[in-house]
Amino acid sequence: MSKKLNPDMEQIIQKYVVEEKSLNIVAKELEIGRTTLVRYMKKYGIRLRDRYELKRRNINFSKEFLDGEYKIKNAGQIAEEQGCSKNTVYRYLKKFGIKIRMQAESLKGKFSGKNNPSFKYDIPKDFLLEEYENKRKDADKVGKIFGCSKYIILRNLRKYGIAVRTNGEAHKGLFSGPKNPNWIDGRSFLPYPAAFNKALKAHIRERDNYTCQVCGMPEEEHIILFGTNLTIHHADYDKNNCEDSNLFSTCFTCNARVNFNKTYWQTFFNSKTGQIKHDTI
After folding, report:
1. Which domain holds residue 233?
2. Which runs of consecutive H residues, i.e. helices, occur in the chain?
3. Model pTM greater than 0.85?
4. What is the pLDDT of residue 104?
5. d(Cα 251, Cα 201) in Å, to the nearest integer?
6. Does the pLDDT value for residue 40 go beyond 80?
7. Which of these three, 142, 157, 183, is where a domain ends?
């Protein structure tokens, strides 16, 4: 397409101002680009219309129309349907004394409940009873099965009147007895023998210089923090083995630590046993 680099001002005025054609149509008829047309219009001092100017001339809202439409739509939706600007709608609303809603009021309820695209509202009650009640799965695991968040599961549980478990109730029994990774054979439930008495414990603490054999906490500090003497740990986790070489002083914190990764800690205390024998000799 050949382009006329110097479009005639009279032609532009005739097509754009008198005939009220759009910029695209005028540019096409003059065989020039839209940007070139706008540049020459500014050069000739021809005022550009805004996109709604022609349509606004024919806009004449009635109070009855706006009163009905504005109850179910916002100003932007009405403007888009009627081909005018949102400000035009607001101007008529003010003219007719119709109260203009805040944005939050316009959107209130629009995305709540089933209108929310992320709301899963059709979770069957039988499914929840089976997975949450019978199989005792928590809300997070049930949500992963159904493909939603745990909060949606909790909302539906309340909707059906199914009692929601607390975190403590949900995890009760999950790590008790043989289910606990530290379970050996139930020996921790056996009572301590008579030989494991106060005199033996005092002897071990004295032998260990009243110091935790893992972290080095002195007993004086332990009494301040925990209100009691250092505890005595069985290196092989056998309560009945009360030989001096199997007993070590530990603080409360380390006594809990040594109940995990038991193979490592048995090796650790075995090295301590060698030191004790050497010191005794």
Report:
1. 195-280
2. 9-12, 23-30, 34-44, 53-57, 63-72, 75-82, 86-95, 103-107, 125-128, 139-146, 150-159, 167-171, 198-207, 219-226, 252-257, 262-280
3. no
4. 65
5. 13
6. yes
7. 183
